[in-house]
From TrEMBL, chains A, B, C, D:
Signal peptide: none annotated. Residues 27-239 form the Ion transport domain. This is Voltage-gated potassium channel. It comes from Tenacibaculum adriaticum. PANTHER family: POTASSIUM VOLTAGE-GATED CHANNEL PROTEIN SHAB, VOLTAGE-GATED POTASSIUM CHANNEL.
Amino acid sequence: MNKIQLQKNWKEKLHEIIYEADTFAGKLFDVALLILILISIVLVMLESVGTIDEKYHDQLYIAEWIVTILFSIEYVLRIISINKPTKYIFSFYGIIDFLSTIPMYLSTFFVGTHTLVAFRALRLLRVFRILKLARYIGESNQLLKALKASRAKVAVFLFFVLILCVILGTIMYLVEGADNGFTSIPRSVYWAIVTLTTVGYGDIAPHTPLGQFIASAIMILGYAIIAIPTGIVTSEITKTGEIHTNTQSCTNCGYEGHKDDAEFCFHCGNKLHT
Amino acid sequence: MNKIQLQKNWKEKLHEIIYEADTFAGKLFDVALLILILISIVLVMLESVGTIDEKYHDQLYIAEWIVTILFSIEYVLRIISINKPTKYIFSFYGIIDFLSTIPMYLSTFFVGTHTLVAFRALRLLRVFRILKLARYIGESNQLLKALKASRAKVAVFLFFVLILCVILGTIMYLVEGADNGFTSIPRSVYWAIVTLTTVGYGDIAPHTPLGQFIASAIMILGYAIIAIPTGIVTSEITKTGEIHTNTQSCTNCGYEGHKDDAEFCFHCGNKLHT
Amino acid sequence: MNKIQLQKNWKEKLHEIIYEADTFAGKLFDVALLILILISIVLVMLESVGTIDEKYHDQLYIAEWIVTILFSIEYVLRIISINKPTKYIFSFYGIIDFLSTIPMYLSTFFVGTHTLVAFRALRLLRVFRILKLARYIGESNQLLKALKASRAKVAVFLFFVLILCVILGTIMYLVEGADNGFTSIPRSVYWAIVTLTTVGYGDIAPHTPLGQFIASAIMILGYAIIAIPTGIVTSEITKTGEIHTNTQSCTNCGYEGHKDDAEFCFHCGNKLHT
Amino acid sequence: MNKIQLQKNWKEKLHEIIYEADTFAGKLFDVALLILILISIVLVMLESVGTIDEKYHDQLYIAEWIVTILFSIEYVLRIISINKPTKYIFSFYGIIDFLSTIPMYLSTFFVGTHTLVAFRALRLLRVFRILKLARYIGESNQLLKALKASRAKVAVFLFFVLILCVILGTIMYLVEGADNGFTSIPRSVYWAIVTLTTVGYGDIAPHTPLGQFIASAIMILGYAIIAIPTGIVTSEITKTGEIHTNTQSCTNCGYEGHKDDAEFCFHCGNKLHT
């Protein structure tokens, strides 16, 4: 029983280091991981640049294997140190971690799968978890709260914008026609989105006077309706106050967002290690 | 008289299914209609893509006729089930429903009218009526209220922007001239709108130093005045509270926007079927 | 003395019709003038379109002369009916009215001055005076008040943006150089403005990796700082309430913006004709 | 000791003229400096324009030397008149002043360093110090306060946007590939930033239907998330009140931001010369 106790302590310690950021070791681990992720992104980027890949192909290949092995070790440690491994494996970050590690192993068996290493960019999202250790935590949470509150309204708005773009794109398809670059309705809808959002690539542009008149109307419209999501989000941010949470995650169920003075997990009632 | 009573009940039942969304059958009808509209839009889009139309022309043609017939049945049922059919026929949605159904029938008589099927995209607007069954209803209404309140101010603003674009376009026509792409005043006004709204296609761009200087001033101006509609809408959204309405429409006069606990139509006093 | 009295009454009546919009005749005059201005703008626009001018050159020429003569009559009446003609002649609208009328007369003596007719577009600004007769008056005034209040802050902001563009443009000139389209510092500054305001024509675009990196930073920056004027204007609009003024202008000094219940001009103390 | 006293007075007088703007001489110096900086910027700009430099190369060269010598004199005076010269030399403005003066001297020894004169554009930032003499001071301070308060939140937001662009750029690199202009991941990330910030040059644009679909999603997304920084800054500006400070800087420690009625430096307790 003493051995089990010890093992449990060892597992709990590991969990604290890997999943939390309240201890010094935990912070160190997070910062090291962050640096490793950034290095791996830079590697993937450099490899994609033709001229660099030609020169330093072998060095980049070796460096990528080193990163892959380190990621693999981290992945295994994460599975070992949590009470319910499936909780982690099928979580958002768990899937991303898996997808960032597997392509290199696959590339030894199948040609072409190597490119999937690019999915590693998604690991950057982990920065937000790690960011919690910084003073920005309060800020991010407040923002997220305001965004969550305005989610439904912004969704309704974006939905309306999309329908508008379908209708306007269809009209422009009838007005301009295939000769002026509006070769199909989906392409015209793409143009309408490019115009209404004020991106304006210019790869497709109206040529007939009527088309330019309608395009002008769409732009003026886009200029006015951009005010809507801004208004929604602003009123939400003005409303929400700040909330204080810490960086702990439950060793049992993995839930986060516990209050600063929380002693038990608000989801499963497990004791938190403060 | 019993027969009339029965018929009236039958009509009322149909009205409830087609026009309202409070009962299960009503919700089912709305969702089915929504899916059918989406399918019809996808059909129209696919048909407009040259390569797809060549391959699957016959299948798309048959599918479109099926959708048209289903739309026709719905249109007839809507006329039958309402007390005052003209109310529906000449309403906004009634006209759109008619325009979405007729092109296919016309195309059997006149060549070329088939393209008008594209007007079916307007039926997507019905999504907003159907959306009422979702939890977004409160959100949309609040948004609409704020937008209605800021309508006049935004209109004044857009009017000002338009006049500004006419004046700036005219100046640029005099400065740049036909050699640099500003071939006429309407085209220059089109350019001014493209620039002021920060769309910036680049199909027309100033080439003379003076033209580029004026263009820069227009952009800086556009950057500043985009703040105006945003400010207007934001202050309105902050002001308006939430209002709760249900999805009922009066069987007698067709009015909507009844309060949750309304028992009689606020417009004609007819009993509502809650 | 009776004759003078009569003449004075006649002048006052004319002043009321031309300068104010409270009587029926005054409103009629304003609406007629508005339509005439719009016609004259359309004429100038049509004339600038090569294909239309070729076909209908004579008709457009005659129509323009008719408009010019009507404008001339209006200009003379405005001078006659006001107590201090110089007040009108050297006012903002007085100068515009003069500039809109003179080019046609000049074109009979000097070749080429005809193009100056395009300045007539500035007369569109008079719409804002005439608009006062509409229900939008309260709205415009409130907007103007908020804009006036935020003027200084927005000016500081735009000034900062301009300096930023000069600095960023200079850096890009050094980084990209003449070979990549950044042929001179003024042109690079123009590019920086095009980029920072998110217009993005694409006539000049960075080609070197470092240039694209700096450009990305500028865009992200532009994305963030557009929030500043919006924030300024929004907070001002939220603050300001509505003010009610009428459409009278003083027959003596020409001042406007009198309160609804004003009996004397707040500037010169002259009795107002309510 | 009398001589030392006199010298001290002389130094203090000079400090007041150069570093502050409360006396007439101080204002005059600031305005003169502002004009000189503007002239030097115009000189650098003109020189960069090929056609102008060819014609007036000698005149521009002489004018630039005159400006450089005047800047040098100012730089020396600034060092002499302050109590702790290192404070100024290693301050933000001190470094810029040095960098604006040195390139001309270097260009006599090394060929090519002349271009560095362009760094002089950074001196424009001094305008903000000089602007303090204008009535805008209150406005700028309020703005800066609101921006400082929203700094952390906007940073988190921009950080999120950057990560999003890396992920979206990587996806587009996989979807579109090198044949459609997405030659490498960094370039694709550059495209994602151009698109998300609604700049939209159009130098790189998606060609495959799937790429255009993803691009549309990015644009709609960018349209929605631009609301976030606006919301943050607006709520901060609404919160902050106005603060009144004067243009004095302490002769001893160089600190600024003293209240209007301050008699002693809030940092070192030195008597302020009001």
